[in-house]
Every structure is written in structure tokens, then in C-alpha cells.
Design brief:
The chain is mostly beta strands and 280 residues long. It contains no helices and 24 strands.
Length: 280
């Protein structure tokens, strides 16, 4: 099925995306049919929000990156809303390499789709430097913030993951960042260093260790908090670092007995290239 040019569509029209592998959703195979919404940010805040309607379910998306799994041929309607309409009005949607100036679009997916609303950003004049100001000879590496949970520095090849056990009590506290059973999916390129800021907001002990789907020990040196079967006490925090040295599909799991089996694990993928990603 070939893509329909957006120039031929009416406002809020239908965008068709070519055939893919069908609906998949597992730590080892990833999401095979989905729409990933990327909302741009300016400074410390997002430029807008997106309402996503799939069937009779409506979600308000207020994260930098959100992935919505779809069944093969299922439709999703996306509506963009600027945070500051006066200064940063909506401009257009960019979906699968196409653009649409309508605030609401409907996509029918059989594959992976990336959709991003674009908002106007005023150009700030560059001030003229005074003779006393000397430019730094060493450029400062740019840090990229995907959302509140994941940032990365491409120059340093370092990703920083904020991992909160029991966030908002999801799954009776058996979750990371409010997600359980692999719904939180993080990927980093091979050879990158990963810093994990782990904290426990639950009422019982929890741990976080990068393991194989059936493993019980860290797959990379340093990839977990100490005493993972005992875990971190409620209110505690610990930072651990490791190098993702081998391409593959892994898990971030709580190894306190019984917790992983009750859904306390996230998907962790080491890719052959690209940049870090996070799917929620």
C-alpha cells in the first residue's frame, strides 16, 4: 500500500502508511505496529500537548516521546494543542516524512509511524558580544532530553536514565517510572555508557538489574544496584553505571524474590547504532 500524499487530503484527513509486519509487542521483538508521538520542547518545557484517540479511548500526551501500540490497520486520531498559542502557535504535523497544516490528523498504521507536531518558535536576536567576552575554545556538548526519564549526550556517548521504583503506586508498587510488564522500553547504542539514577518510592524493597530475559545476574559489569535480592529500602536511592558492550535484548528487572514475575521489569535494548530512545 503506497503512502497517500498529504497535499491531496482534506483537513483532519486520513494518512495511510505502507504494510509492515503486523502487531508485535515484546521485549525481544519491539513494537511492530505503533505510532510514536514526539512533542518538541523549548528551554525546559514542551511546546504543546497531544490528544490521542484510539477507538473509544482518549489519552492526553504530555511527555516528550510517547509510543502507542496499534493493531494492524487500526486508526489513531492525533490533535495538537500549543502550550502558549500566542507565542508558539501550531504550524503543522510531520508524519512519516509528510506534512499537514491541520491540527487534527488520523493515521491508519500497519508498521512503525513517527508523528511530530511543529510549533512556531520566535527567532531570538543574537546579542553582539563586547570586547571583554572571549568565546570558549572548547565547545560544550549538547545534551538531548527525550522526556523526564531519559537524557543523553551524543558527544560523550552517555545516556542517563532516571528509574523510580513504585512511581505513583502503579501495579501495587511493582513498576518502574509508572510502567510494568515491559511497557517501559529503553534502547541505547552499543558501546555507550549508561548512568542509572535509581530510587525507591514504594513501601517495600526493590532493586534494578540489567539481565537477560531469564537471567539472575548483571549482563554488564556494574549494571545494577548491590544486593539485588535484598533490594533498596523505601526512600533510598543509588546511582550505578555500566557500558552497554553487546548488542541484544535485555531486561531491567527487580530481583527481589517474586517481583519480576509480578510484572516489575522493563525492556532494555542495545542497538548496533543510532541514538538512545524511550517508548512508554
Amino acid at each position: 500500500m503506497a503512502a497517500v500524499p498529504l497535499s491531496l487530503l482534506a483537513a483532519g484527513g486520513l494518512l495511510l502508511v505502507g504494510c509492515g509486519r503486523g502487531p508485535l509487542n515484546s521485549p525481544s521483538q519491539g513494537v511492530g505496529c505503533s505510532v510514536t508521538v514526539q512533542i518538541p520542547a523549548s528551554g525546559s518545557g514542551l511546546l504543546g500537548t497531544v490528544e490521542a484517540r484510539v477507538g473509544s479511548t482518549t489519552r492526553q500526551l504530555d511527555l516528550g516521546t510517547t509510543t502507542i501500540p496499534l493493531s494492524c490497520g487500526q486508526q489513531a486520531t492525533l490533535t495538537a494543542e500549543p502550550t502558549h498559542p500566542a507565542t508558539n502557535p501550531f504550524v503543522s504535523w510531520r508524519v512519516a516524512g509528510q506534512t499537514s497544516a491541520t491540527t487534527s490528523i488520523t493515521v491508519t498504521a500497519d508498521g512503525l509511524i513517527t508523528a511530530s507536531p511543529q510549533f512556531f518558535i520566535p527567532v531570538t536576536p543574537t546579542p553582539t558580544p563586547t570586547p571583554k567576552v572571549r568565546p570558549s575554545s572548547t565547545p560544550t556538548p549538547a545534551s538531548v532530553t527525550l522526556d523526564q526519564w531519559l537524557t543523553y549526550d551524543p558527544a560523550a556517548r552517555t545516556a542517563t536514565l532516571k528509574l523510580v521504583a513504585g512511581y505513583k503506586g502503579v501495579n501495587r508498587g511493582l513498576s518502574y517510572d509508572g510502567y510494568s510488564n515491559g511497557q517501559l522500553a529503553v534502547s541505547v547504542p552499543v558501546g555507550w555508557k549508561v548512568d542509572v539514577d535509581f530510587s525507591n518510592a514504594a513501601t517495600i524493597n526493590h532493586s534494578a538489574v540489567v539481565v537477560t530475559p531469564k537471567g539472575t545476574s548483571p549482563v554488564f559489569p556494574g549494571a545494577g544496584n548491590p544486593d539485588p535480592t535484598v533490594g533498596l529500602a523505601p526512600g533510598g536511592s543509588f546511582t550505578f553505571s555500566f557500558v552497554a558492550s553487546a548488542v541484544g535484548s535485555y531486561r531491567i528487572a527487580c530481583l527481589v524474590p517474586g517481583h519480576e514475575g509480578l510484572g516489575m521489569w522493563a525492556s532494555f535494548q542495545v542497538t548496533a547504532g543510532g541514538v538512545p530512545t524511550i517508548h512508554l
